[in-house]
Amino acid sequence: DGGITQSPKYLFRKEGQNVTLSCEQNLNHDAMYWYRQDPGQGLRLIYYSQIVNDFQKGDIAEGYSVSREKKESFPLTVTSAQKNPTAFYLCASSTQIAGGRNEQFFGPGTRLTVL
Amino acid sequence: AQSVTQLDSQVPVFEEAPVELRCNYSSSVSVYLFWYVQYPNQGLQLLLKYLSGSTLVESINGFEAEFNKSQTSFPLRKPSVHLSDTAEYFCAVSPLTGANNLFFGTGTRLTVIP
Q1: Residues of A in contact with B29 (CB under 8 A)
Q2: What's the pLDDT tens digit per position in A1-39?
Q3: Does B100 sit within 8 Å of A31, measured CB to CB?
């Protein structure tokens, strides 16, 4: 089945530690995205990538880093510089045609809790 | 810049009653409009979208939304809800040009009461 997988589903981190969230897709999509979801705030864009080896900051990139070495993979690292990392993180992908008409497909999410 | 406003954070409704979830947007450019649904502890799924043509769009499970350009609104409606419709609903917009980025509202939690 085609889709997006995220791992782990739940992640606990001690303050001061970096953690990496995995996102893999087998939909052959060029574009991939990371969102953060907090209660009452909807989804906010962290980073996005339109093509391999290229990515751009979204609205709340501070304290996060990404890489796009393969088309299928777009891991997100939450660094110790992120002041309030406890949240639900969602990865998405889409075909990359100019303009915003394309549906984004979402993974099941990773819930990160900082202890 | 784009912004999306969903005025109702929570909407309780009895089973088989009608429901409307409000969505208003602001944008300096033309946009496409989307409704996504999120069931507990899951990712988002596309419910329906308006790209062009008829302003009334429908989903396979009975929801519909109507694009109103003059009021910059895209309300989601269903004439008779089921218990399985309990979920969080997000309205989103995406500019017609540039990157395929979505701008989301803060979501409306629909709770269907037996």
Answers
A1: none
A2: 679 999 999 999 998 899 999 999 999 999 999 999 998
A3: yes
